Amino acid sequence: MCDTFKTRDGFLQFTELKDKNECVNLENITAENKVVKPNKAEKWEIEAIGQFLFEEYQNLLFGVRTEWLVRKCILRAKYVKFIANAKTEVRQRLLEANTKYGIGTLLNRTNYLINTNRDSPFYRIRTTTFFEYTNKLLEEFDEKQKNGQSTEIMSNGEECKTAINGDPALTGSLEVDENAPTHELLYEGSQLQLRIPSFQLTNMGCYICQKNFISPNDFEEHVLSHGDESDFKILEGYEKCATPIFKLSYNICKNSHYFRFNLESLKPNIVIEKLVIVQTRTFYYVNNTRVPYALDANRKDSFFVDSHLFRKGVVQPIVVVFHEASLPMHNVEQHHFCRIEEFPVVHLNINPCRLPNKITFKPKFKLPQYMPPVEIRRALQKDSMDAPLAELSNEFRDYMLNKKTLTHHNAREVVLKLLQIEDWDTMREYSSLVQRNVQLRTYENDYILKLKLPKNIRFENIIFPYDDVIVLPAEESNVLSTSIDELMKKMEQLVDETAAKQQTAQKKTKKYIGQIECISYGRVTFKCQQKIPSDKLYTIIFRPSRLVLRYQYRALEQMVAMPPCLLKELLFPDEILTRELPVFNLNLLNKTIYRNPEQLQAVKCMVNMSATPSLVPYIIFGPPGTGKTSTLVEAIYQIYMLQPRSRILITAGSNGACDEIALRLCNALSPHIERQTITRIYSRSYENRAENINETLLEYSNLYADHFLPDIDVLHSYRIVVCTLSMVGRLATGRFGKEKDGSGVFSHVFVDEVAASTEAEALVGITATITANSRLVIAGDHQQLGPILNSKRAANMGLEMSLMERLLTRECYRVDEEGNYNRQIQARLRRNYRSHPEIVKLFSEMFYKGELIAEAEPEVQQLCRDWHRAPNADYPIIFHSVFGPEQRENNSTSRYNPLEIQTVMDYVRDLLCFGIKGHKVVQSDIGIITPYKKQYIRIQEELNLRNWYQIETGAVESFQGKEKNIIIISFVRSFTNNLGFLDSRNRLNVALSRARSLLILIGNPRTLSINGDFKQIIELCQLQKTMVGAAYYENDSKRPTNKSNDATLQQLTKSMEKLNVGKAQGSNGAKSKNAKGKAKNKQAANKTKNATKANESAASVNDVLKSNNSSKFKSKKRYFYYKLRYMKREKAQASALESYDVDR
């Protein structure tokens, strides 16, 4: 039984009956009818009652679900328990005070109570006062996070210290790697300033310049003047001394991501006021709880900073603000630091699984360049390219005439032409980025180049890490043609084997070829093995890294060598006669699969594939959370255990998908691990990210020490090999997957996330490894993210269609109207084990015709029920309405939305500070998705300032295949007529399906509603009363109004106008200074006329009021004014209550 009360929305469950019984016993304990204190509450009372209310708020005794109503007898009983368990001084004082005052009196005195009738059984909590208290807690929590003190506010209102990440606390635990070199920072300038003793730094202030800002935009603009993006404009007012007072250097710490920075002063008696690291949009103050402090007699000091605070390839100033003892002036000295590695390498104590590194990989042949031929280039330069392309080959002409349909006759030629279009269009964009007469900035072996481009060129969408940078002498600029054909020829002259070419280059023209490390804020950082003089001017050409494309060209070449019958059965299977499904028992590792008929049948079919003569690929269609990876892992495990002669290759387009399967297999096979069981092969580009890889995975990989590629014969000796499709292409140059006699090595090839790869990419893994004795399994979901292409022309002509999506259109994979399909060659998973049933229902109805079945554990639903900010206990999807404008930076198509960033951080702070019903929320529980790079970079910067490095933030692409308990999505787009790639249904599907328990959507509902899918989500949240934030009405005419109040307001406004009470009236009924000035000037211009009009106006209102000086007139004016103000305030409060805006 429950104690309930009726509201306008029906009956709301309030509290359990046991609390009601307690009310009967404890109802008369309090003494609200005794002597009342003076109205003004003491500070300790406000905080104590706030702490008590906050505990009950977290326990869901009241809140938005109860419309902030709480039964009096229950709150009294809770209060008696609260003060009876006094553990703090504040509670003890309440216990003493309780002999005179009850909770009702204290609520009223502390302004937490909205007046209610004495006969009412409920208190109504004043939200404004209550949120003032919680906001104060969040601000204190936020400040401690920035200072490196990690605390959470638990349900008892007390701070629970979990870790100290701040610099002072780390000095005893961090150890510097003695073998690592010491690197000096570059000194850039100094400035002598007059110290302002009264200056108090705010959270939007600059201690360097001793300025505080009110506007966030002004503050951000000021920070930019200190940073890399403005070319350090602030240094224009600095002087570069011959000898700086400080010498700054840094060391890399051992087995951690921290840098130790070292200060050494050349002068004695120095007092450090602030140590400032200039971030992109704010300042980070190091040792903020320690400063100011005087240097020791040795004039040296050090401090530790997490490397996450520094963006790779971005020059960041480290500023020392100091003064000499007893002097009124202080000095500002600026040094520059640039992080050139991804992160400091963390050496793990692991035992490698004997993947031999003595004999390494050697290619058997040189991979050709495969440059697009001249006829393709000419055809693409014409306005209408269909006819010229059709003339190039009969196969391509047939393809265009037959509605872009691939057949086994035209497949190779058509895919080749589409790949060449993609290749050429990509290179065309690079030709627009030629830089002439530029100077390089040097940091060890890294070079930084600031791009100078027209505003219409968005370079960040063209160049990417691992692209090539060709550095030529500046004089080459005069002979280098601007035509794209000439630039292409120049690129072709410089092949990939750069080291050998550079050794034999002509002395007259010295060339350097480097590789891009990162692109950020208009700057490109690249690495070059040779030393490039920094005192000269250069011409820079960018060239795309075409290795992946060249592997695809090679795969298309290998199609010619494959038997036509094998190629047809693999890529163009015909209708297959239905056979009986295999019936046999399996000892499953994952016992939950026994309860899932689709998964169980899929595992049996894959295990039985080698017993059937058919070479038709087995397809697993796995919507989000349906256990696709679990099914693959179970099948691979059973094949490994039951078929000792099997050899298995597992590949996918992304490292994330490969890692997920490999890690699960390592854990599953751990009791059966032998010397050559499983290995995970990474490319060299992953070496700097080794610290992000699971230790178990590293143990079975080629990254347990320095990166190496093992010999092909060594790889062939392993039962299971896991690597990406591009790595298969690299290894295929050493005849990976083929024995010396040409037969195949692998009995089974599994390609995961095949729907996210083009058909050409999938062929890289297939043509190199599949033979007549192999069996192919592909898995994915074409309703999620598809292939990423640079050329819209190639995409529109069919290159964007994946192998999986095309195969599912074949007759043998067809699903009839009743949902029946051939289960011998495909499995369609539909039971979702990940998400809350309401989340599953949302994306199932939007993208999967409502076919998915929610089967998640009950505890998945509990998190929403227990969260104090969830408006509806049974609906975990919250839409937070925000009307903040989107913004863009110069030379960037990427957008960001500052107000949405602030809202995201509000939710993160609340979750990490308060937890959920007294239980801690850890950082890894939260994922933040946003479609725009600038937005997630700015969010990541805010997280880094607070030492929250475990909260994963990124674009939709980086979250495919992942899940989090709590997902926060910021949509960014606002006040625009189109949504860009937010219109992609596949992208929205991935974003919505990542959350397990809570899904928080943040955006502009009016802008997003131009898309039907978004409009459906917003209407659902409105229906479930989970739309919070700024009030939003689809149609302004439907805005709820109080007709009687509106009529009264209109009448009062007209009366005020007649009495000359204008808009410029102050709160006391008098005119503002500006209004007075205007009136005075106007009166001076036409005094007689104005006086006459004033008298006429007064007479028309009331004959009794003879002039504006009448006391009756003044009383009437005051009456109208205060009545109007009161009515407007009541209307605003009613509107706020109806919008359910409980978020400040």
Instruction: Assign the CATH architecture of the largest domain.
Output: 3-Layer(aba) Sandwich
| Poorly predicted spans | 1-38, 151-172, 496-508, 1060-1073, 1087-1114, 1133-1144
| Overall outline | globular
Number of E strands? 43
Output the number of helix runs. 38
**Beta-strand percent range:** 15-25%
Which structural class best describes the helix and strand composition? alpha/beta
Radius of gyration: 35 Å
* End-to-end Cα distance: 34 Å
Mean pLDDT comes to 82
Major sheet size, sense and barrel closure:
7 strands, antiparallel
The CATH class designation of the largest domain is Alpha Beta
CATH homologous superfamily classification of the largest domain: P-loop containing nucleotide triphosphate hydrolases
Helix proportion range: 25-40%
Write the layout of secondary structure elements.
Layout: E1 2-7, E2 10-16, H1 17-26, H2 43-58, E3 69-71, H3 72-84, H4 89-97, H5 103-109, E4 113-114, E5 122-125, H6 127-146, E6 149-153, E7 159-164, H7 167-170, E8 183-184, E9 186-194, E10 205-206, E11 211-212, H8 216-226, E12 246-252, E13 258-265, E14 270-278, E15 283-286, E16 293-294, E17 300-306, E18 315-324, E19 329-338, H9 374-380, H10 386-390, H11 394-401, H12 411-430, E20 435-438, E21 441-443, E22 446-450, E23 468-473, H13 476-479, H14 484-493, H15 498-503, E24 512-520, E25 523-527, E26 538-543, H16 547-561, H17 564-571, H18 597-607, E27 618-621, H19 628-642, E28 648-652, H20 655-669, E29 678-680, H21 695-699, H22 712-716, E30 720-724, H23 725-732, E31 748-752, H24 759-767, E32 775-780, H25 792-799, H26 803-807, E33 826-828, E34 831-832, H27 837-847, E35 853-854, H28 859-866, E36 877-881, E37 887-888, E38 895-896, H29 898-914, E39 926-929, H30 933-945, E40 952-954, H31 956-959, E41 964-970, H32 985-992, E42 995-1003, H33 1005-1008, H34 1012-1023, E43 1027-1029, H35 1043-1058, H36 1073-1085, H37 1087-1101, ...
Parallel strand pairs: 27-32, 27-33, 28-30, 28-31, 29-30, 31-32, 34-35, 36-42, 36-43, 39-40, 39-41, 41-42
Antiparallel strand pairs: 1-2, 3-5, 4-5, 6-7, 8-12, 9-19, 10-11, 12-13, 13-17, 14-15, 14-16, 14-18, 18-19, 20-26, 21-22, 22-25, 23-24, 23-26, 24-25, 37-38
Helix pairs in contact: 1-3, 12-16, 12-25, 16-24, 18-19, 19-20, 23-24, 29-30, 35-38, 36-37
